[in-house]
Design goal:
CATH superfamily: Thiolase/Chalcone synthase
Structural class: alpha/beta
Number of domains: 1
CATH topology: Peroxisomal Thiolase, Chain A, domain 1
Length: 403
């Protein structure tokens, strides 16, 4: 596994700070926000792409792809796989991103207006296209197998990982680089989400702004980053003596089909995705110990997800450990599912659930164990990670200890 996040750019640093209840949310430094109604977010302030990408290639990658390459490089090195994973045609890449190269689009549009059409960069399209992350990673690691991209808004990374899982199950691949990357914390991205009234406006207390399931939640906090994992067929991994971190057990997805930006109020689409994931894994609801919730901190989203969990898990919902990683890093949009599955795997491996910080007074109807403010020790054999996105996209992935 590998990541770039507002809490650090290595798995160990991220996990340590997450368990400590730290927040990676602060006033935005990359551009002047004095005219903006929202002036904070989950920036990856310590990320230097030059540590991961050579100087020549750096100019050809938008920030989201730079982050994907950094996270992918960490994951690949940790995996111990050779270049091409032994058989390049059985080694693939599927990376999700909800928006892609938004910074490049803004920069080149400004150049077009200021300097004219002849000054627009020849690298514009290769930098802004959503599949730039997958394409560049495949070139870097000689992955000549299945190679696609997924753009399902905030469900992108989890949908990408579901596709990677299925590619291995079908026999199309023996190993896959998968996850998500997003760097939409730009002037246009911030102002557009702000205009939708989707964001928290706690400018005076940014570290307290992301409040999943709390009574005083007032919207999500934009973040950026990348979470990338290596999925590998079990026998392939065992035969080479790989250090297997966890096992992907099942995947499910669905559509709300009710509104482009608001969730089904009863959480029926989310429940369908969770139910499908459990069926894919061949598990009953009572087998699940922990859920890494989508948990954005929006008034509608958190209650809809809570209702969905109750409908799927019934009385067992009150036995579950649940937490929202977004409370500490904000909402990484299309990258969120990758980082959150990574946090879920770490919870399984270390026997501890990371906290949902800023959860001081549970909101009406939010009466489950969301791990408020302090980590909780737990023996986790099976866990689920949820991602739901604009467009009504719902995706759930089930992961467990390696047997």
């Amino acid at each position: 596994m590998g990541l770039v996040s507002p809490l650090g750019n290595s798995v160990d640093v991220f996990w340590e700070r997450l368990l400590a209840g730290e927040s990676g949310i602060a006033p935005i430094e990359r551009f002047d926000t004095s005219r903006y109604s929202v002036r904070f977010g989950g920036e990856c302030r310590d990320f230097d792409p030059a540590n991961w990408v050579d100087k020549k290639a750096l100019k050809r990658l938008d920030r989201f792809a730079q982050m994907a390459v950094a996270a992918g490089t960490q994951a690949f090195k940790a995996s111990g796989l050779p270049a091409g994973a032994g058989d390049p045609r059985k080694f693939g890449v599927i990376i999700g991103s909800g928006i892609g190269g938004l910074a490049e689009m803004e920069d080149q549009h400004n150049r077009l207006l200021d300097k004219g059409p002849d000054k627009v960069s020849a690298f514009t399209i290769p930098k802004l296209m959503v599949n730039a992350a997958s394409g560049n990673l495949s070139i870097l690691f000689d992955a000549k197998g299945p190679n696609t991209s997924v753009a399902t808004a905030c469900a992108s990374a989890t949908n990408a990982m579901g596709d990677a899982f299925h590619a291995i199950v079908r026999g199309d691949a023996e190993a896959m680089i998968t996850g998500g990357a997003e760097a939409a914390l730009t002037p246009l991205g911030l102002s557009a989400f702000s205009s939708m009234k989707a964001l928290s406006v706690r400018n005076e207390a940014p570290q307290k702004a992301s409040r999943p399931f709390d009574r005083d939640r007032d919207g999500f906090v934009m973040g950026e980053g990348a979470g990338v994992l290596i999925f590998e067929e079990y026998e392939h991994a065992r035969n080479r003596g790989a250090d297997m971190l966890a096992e992907i057990l099942g995947f499910g997805m669905s559509a709300d089909a009710c509104h482009l930006t608001q969730p089904d109020e009863q959480g029926r689409g989310a429940a369908a995705a969770m139910t499908a994931a459990l069926a894919s894994a061949g598990l009953t609801p009572t087998r699940v110990d922990y859920i890494n919730a989508h948990g954005t901190g929006t008034p509608l989203g958190d209650i809809a997800e809570t209702m969905a969990v109750k409908s799927v898990f019934s009385d067992h919902a009150y036995q579950l450990r649940i937490s929202s990683t977004k409370s500490s890093i904000g909402h990484l949009l299309g990258a969120s599912g990758g980082v959150e599955l990574l946090a879920t795997v770490m919870a399984i491996r270390h026997g501890v659930v990371s906290p949902t910080i800023n959860l001081d007074n549970p909101g009406e109807g939010c009466d489950l164990n969301y791990t408020p403010n302090t980590p909780q020790d737990a023996k986790i054999k099976v866990a689920m990670s949820n991602s739901f996105g604009f467009g009504g996209h719902n995706a759930s992935i089930v992961v467990g200890r390696v047997q």
